Amino acid sequence: MVIDKSIPIKMEESTSLILDLIYRLKIKDVMSRNLVVASPEDSLDHIKTLMKQKNVTGIPIVKKDRLLGILSIDDIFKALDNGYMQELAEKHMSKKLVMLEEDMPLAFAISYFDKFKYGRFPVVDRNNLLVGMITSRDINVGLLITINKEVARMEELLAQSTPVDVHNIRKIFRIRKYDFEHAGNASNRIKKLLVERKLDPRDIRRVAVAMYEMEINITVHSEGGTLTVVIDNDHAEIIAKDSAPGIEHPELALQEGYSTANEWIKSLGFGAGMGLANIRRVSDTFDFHSALGKGTTVRAVIDFKRKKGNDNDH
Amino acid sequence: MKIDQLIKELGCEVLHRRKETGVKDLKHFVVSDLMSDVLLIDEEVDLLITSLSTTQAMRTADIVSAMGVIIVNGKAVTADMKAAAKEFDMTLLKTKLSTFEVCGVIHRLKG
Amino acid sequence: MTIKDMMQLKGLTLVQQEFEDATISGGYTSDLLSDVMAHAVADNVLITIQAHINTVAVAKLVGIRALLIANDREILDDMIRAAQKEKIAIFRSKMNQFELSVLVSKLLAKASC
User: Residues B5-42: pLDDT tens digits?
Assistant: First the structure.
């Protein structure tokens, strides 16, 4: 009876962490060193008792630490069936041995298990002396322990790596149409964060103005949309997206003074038509796409400590 | 000049005072009734002088980091504007005078 | 002071010169035309950035004889033509509303001495 013990690790598809581990880990890191061995002169019956006592399924047969052969539980079943349990180990041990060296990466052991379908492999050192045994369970346990350690280490690193001065902001705001009461609220909040993090006032102004203009545009000119803000140590990226109605003449919208706002909106103080041109003015990168029926996307990037235009100090 | 001088000379009603009040020497005044215009300014803004008595004026003032807003022409100030002043920690004043007159007074106080 | 006196002011450019000279007794600074209609009085000079034809209409209504456009705003042709028709002077300046208000205040103060 042969038990299929092939390892279900697909080497080609493993995540890089696993691959890294199975090459980094050596067989000696996971093998059992508590060797249960027998000598060639021991009877199969003795081997059977040894297996039962020590709860192992394979016994290496050694003479002065030199590996001569191996006896597996399958061999014992055969002996039981055919009635030669009193015979000696050396007569029935497998001499065609597949051995693994202790310094080999774990990856080798995994591929050996897959290739040879044995339940265990003896492990030898450079001098071909037996130093341990490796089973698929040893591989599992070894991997689990190491992965646990890795993850714990990574989590600790993550917890430590949020230095206080990182302008680490990622937020998405939903902006509702004609919500004049809150129009600009997202921008006010982000500006407050930037002041707290002590960003240069000139950079704060540029980010706040760009974002505010974009927020008002969504409120006044669209059916509603989103405002995404990503700010790190080096720059701020603001993306405004709405899905309707889109701008009929995008090229006109970039002209200062051009506005399609109605009288009511203008009376509230909006819609003077500076918006897009102003966003472009304060940004280092500016993208704008719009089509009637498709909606509008505006993207602005403000690079910090790179002042637009005038570089004079206050 | 300091804010208290201005409040006195303009006969302002004080609707909200910011926390660090009275400390700053006021130098940069912006006059505008169109908030989109205010957004075109690059310079520092101490006080926004406007007749646009809306929450948007407060938000715009916050965007340009103004320390206060003066509403002119005796226009009514809404509760939302007061709440905004509190939220942004901004001084909110009201005067019966016109923008033109306010500018004249400021100029006089600046000496 | 009169409109003609304003022509001496440094920083002001006269862009619509077909006007009827008149006394200026005060100034009104505003970008909200509804406000101008409600509060400005005749013989005010209007300081504003609203450089379009509606400003002329409101000026006429109120009795304003001179317009002062701030922030170097571009003045549209139809505004110039309307002002020509009404004999209302238009000045243009790089200065902002605050600076222009102060300038006119000073001139008025000097004139009344």
Answer: 999 999 999 999 999 877 889 999 999 998 888 999 99
- In chain B, the domains with their CATH numbers are 3-110 (3.40.1390.20)
Phi, psi of A129 (to 5 degrees): -95, 140
ipTM, interface predicted TM-score of the complex: 0.92
- The answer to whether the CB atoms of A209 and B37 lie below 8 A apart is no
In whole angstroms, give the CA distance from residue C15 to residue C90: 6
- CA atoms of A279 and A299, how far apart (whole Å): 9
Burial class (CB in 10 A: 0-12, 13-18, 19+), B76: exposed
Measured distance CA(B37)–CA(C71) in Å, rounded: 10
CB contact under 8 A, B51 and C27: no
The full DSSP string for A160-223 is HT--TT---EEEEEEE-TT-TTTTTHHHHHHHHHHHHTT--HHHHHHHHHHHHHHHHHHHHHSS
Structurally, how many domains does chain A consist of?
2
| The token pair that represents A117 in the structure block | 């379908």
- Could you say which DSSP state residue A93 is in? S
Q: Specify the length of chain B in residues.
A: 111
- Tokens at residue A27, please? 């067989």
Residue A24 sits in the same domain as residue A152: yes
| 3-42 of B, contacting A, C-beta below 8 A | 33-37, 39-40, 42
* Contact state of A184 with B65 under an 8 Å Cβ cutoff: no
The Cβ of residue B96 has, within 10 Å, a number of other Cβ atoms equal to: 13
Q: Among A128, A158, A188, where does a domain finish?
A: A158
Map out the domains of chain C with their CATH numbers. 3-112 (3.40.1390.20)
Assess contact for A46 and A94: CB atoms under 8 A: no
Could you tell me if A149 and A186 lie in one domain?
Answer: no
Domain that holds residue A136: 16-158
Measured distance CA(B49)–CA(B29) in Å, rounded: 7
CA distances in angstroms from B31 to A6, A158, C65, C74, listed in the order given: 80, 49, 22, 19
Higher pLDDT, A211 or A152: A211
Report the alpha-carbon distance of residue B45 to residue B24 in Å, rounded.
Answer: 12
What residue of A is the nearest CA neighbor of B45? A205
Residues across chain C: 113
Place of tokens 């103004």: B66
Distances in Å between the Cα of B21 and the Cα atoms of A218, A256, B9, B77, C49 are 35, 37, 17, 20, 32
Q: Count of CB atoms within 10 A of residue A292's CB?
A: 12
In a domain, A267, yes or no: yes
pLDDT 10s digits, B68-82: 999 999 999 999 999
Domain boundary among A158, A184, A213: A158
Q: Which of B37, B52, B104 sits opposite C49 (nearest CB)?
A: B37
Same domain for A126 and A67: yes
CATH number of the domain residue A280 falls in: 3.30.565.10
pTM of this structure = 0.66
Crossing angle for the helix pair A185-196 and B55-63, to the nearest 10 degrees: 30
**Contact, A259 vs A253, CB < 8 A?**
no
